Amino acid sequence: MNRGPDVQSQKTQIVIVGGGAAGLELATRLGARYGRRQHDIILVDENRTHIWKPLLHEVAAGSLDANLDEVGYRGHCHKWGYRYFRGALAGIERQEQRIHLAPIMDDRGTQVVGPQQLRYDYLVLAYGSVTNDFGTPGVKENCIFLDRRADADRFRDRLLDQCLRVSRAMSADAASDARVEVAIVGGGATGVELAAELFNAADALGHYGLEVFDRTRLKVTLVEAGPRILPALPERLAEAAQDELRKLGVEVRTSTPVVESTAAGMMTGAGDLIAADLQVWAAGVKARPIANGLDGIEVSRIGQVVVAPTLQSVTDPRILALGDCAHCMLPGRDRPVPPRAQAAHQMAATAFQNLNRIMAGKQPRPFVYKDRGSLVSLSRFSTVGTLMGNLVGGRMAVEGRLARMIYLSLYRLHLIAIHGWIKGLALVAVGHVNRVVRPRLKLH
Fold first, then answer.
1. Residue 367 · residue 309 · CB < 8 Å
2. Which of 330, 359, 388 is the last residue of a domain?
3. Longest dimension (CA), the chain
4. Which of 337, 359, 381 is the last residue in one of the domains?
C-alpha cells in the first residue's frame, strides 16, 4: 500500500476530505494563511475539478457549460498553498490518525493508482451528500441522480438524444404526437429548478438545428410525495412557483408518493404509471457512504457525522465535519443545520477559525448558523424566495428581478471565497460576457 510522500513529514498536517463548497473554501483559507512552511494542507477529492453543486441542474439542461465554471484542483492548490490528492475516502484509523483512500481506476476498470493512506494531525470531513432513494425499487437502475457533474452530463446527453428522435419523427410526419417525457421526483429546489430550466432549453433548441422542436414537444411531470412543493418557502411563494411552473407547461403532482421506477416510468402509490423517457430522482439526501466505515465515529440515521456546536466530532475532537455530511444540532434548535450551500459556506468560515484556535491552544468557538433565507430560480422565467436577517426585520418575501439578482450573488460570493476578490470579480465579469457571446445551450 502506498503511504504517500508525507509520512515522514513533521509539519502540522490538516487533511480535508471533499472538495465541495465547504472543503474547497476551507482549503483556500488555510492555504492562504499557513502556506507550506510549517503546515501541510491536503485536499482530497475523487474528482479532478470542482463545480458548485447548486449549478448542476443548469449543466443537466445544457444551460451552463461546466467547462467554463469548473475549478481544477491542481491549478488552484498551486496558487493557494495547499496540496491536492486525488482519491475517495475508504476508511479511517483514528488511533493511528490516518485515512485510507480507495484505488483510482480508469474508465476501462484498470487500476491507475493502488490503495493509499495519509496521516493527519487534524481531519476535516466535507465529502458531502448523495441522493437518497429510500430503497425504492428500480430507482438505482432507471433514474438519474444529480450528485456529480458526470450525472448532469449524462442527463444532458440523453435529453439531447431524445429531442433529436422527436424532431426526426416530426420531420417525417407532421402529424406525429411524439414528445420528450421527463419525470422528476422531488419538489424541493433541485426538482423545481430543473423542471423550469428544461423549458428554457426547449425554447433554445430551435435556434440550434432542431427547427421543428419547441416546448410543446416537452412534457415534464414534477412529482412530490408531500402536500406541496418547496416546503422551505412560505406557502404563498410556493404557490407562486407552482403557478409559474404550470404556466410553463409542467404538470405538478403533489401528495403523490412514488413506489417503484420501471423502464417505462414511475409507478405511484395509487397504481398510476407516469410514463417517462427520462427519470430524475431528487427526493432527499443522505451522507455519502464510506466503504470501510468511520472507525466508530457517531453518525446520524442518514449517515452524517454527529458534531458538537464547535463542528468537532462528538467522538473524536481531532476530526471536524462540515456541510452536508455533518449532523449539527445547535442549542435551542429542534432540527439540525440544513444541508444548504449557505450552511456549508458558514461552516467553512467557523472551521477555519476553530482550527486556528485549537492549534494555538485556545478553546474553539461554537458555530452560529445565520439563515439568510431560501431562493429558488425558475430559470429566466422567475425567481422566488425569502430573505432573513436584521436588515429586513425578520423574514421578507422577494420575487422577480430582485430575487434573481440575490440568487446570482450567492454563486458570486462562492467565487470570491475560492479565488479572492480580484479574480472572483473578474470571473463574474467574464460570466456576463459569456452570456452574450456564447451559445445559450451546450450541445456537446
1. yes
2. 359
3. 76
4. 359
All three cell numbers of 69 = 465554471
Q: How many domains does the chain have?
A: 3
**Residues 6 or more apart whose Cβ sits within 8 Å of residue 415:** 424, 427, 428
Query: pLDDT of 316-374, one tens digit each?
Result: 999 999 999 999 999 999 999 999 888 999 999 999 999 999 999 999 999 999 887 67
Residue 69: domain span: 12-131+285-359
Grid cell locating 109: 476498470
Q: Quick check: 378 and 196 in contact, CB under 8 A?
A: yes
* Same-domain pairing of 45 and 102: yes
User: Using one digit for the tens of pLDDT, what is the confidence trace for 6-18?
Assistant: 544 589 999 999 9
Separation of alpha carbons 403 and 397, rounded Å: 9
Separation of alpha carbons 30 and 344, rounded Å: 16
DSSP string, 114-153: --EEEE-SEEEE---EEE--TT-TTHHHH-B--SSHHHHH
Residue pLDDT, tens place only, 6-65: 544 589 999 999 999 999 999 999 999 998 888 999 999 999 999 988 889 888 988 877
| Grid cell listed for 145 | 441522480
